[in-house]
């Protein structure tokens, strides 16, 4: 189990998650979920020793949500960026030659899993379904009731220290991903992460981008809604509606015309010309 700091526990226990104090606490972590229930459920699961899987489209804020949870628990967090090249060394660490008292020795350099388990911190696994299916079973033991893992390089059996918790993120159906096997998926509590929209998106853009013109920010919020709708209709790929890309466009718009900023930060990242044209048409409609 992971101990929840007193100020966070008090605000949750008193059902004051909509209070200014709690809003300030969450904002300091960098992300305010669209629904309070998402935050409450994630905090509850982690405090009970559960692992959580954040499921949502690319750019919806899953990593920022994980960082906010780390902040709420006053926990540091080791991170794994999954890919097809992820292997046991990337997870657990590796052996290297070193010198001690003038003699050559073999030293083990711990990886993110080893560090998180031994230090009792959070472990964040980004895009977990990008990893090869044969790699992830290595950590199954530390994800269930055993809370132990065997280091294949040192044969050490490590028991997770109090405070250890796992947060993973997944983009289902994204290029290069594979379905999670049931044994792994069953070790997580799943929380869906939708795109941030409306007033909440405007607040995020105001706080996290260099653009402060309220009128232009409103137009970017409308653009985001149009992009999300086009993604839902299959007209655009998920990359087009990324909040990360939208923030880049807002930053650039503080210095250059918005339509040009949208081209650089959003449209030109897309692969298909028809998608680029659609995004630029949306921008022209809104920004003239």
From TrEMBL:
InterPro entries: ATPase_dyneun-rel_AAA, CbbQ/NirQ/NorQ/GpvN, P-loop_NTPase. Gene3D superfamilies: P-loop containing nucleotide triphosphate hydrolases. SUPFAM superfamilies: P-loop containing nucleoside triphosphate hydrolases. Residues 51-188 form the ATPase dynein-related AAA domain. PANTHER family: MAGNESIUM-CHELATASE SUBUNIT CHLD, MOXR FAMILY PROTEIN. This is MoxR family ATPase.
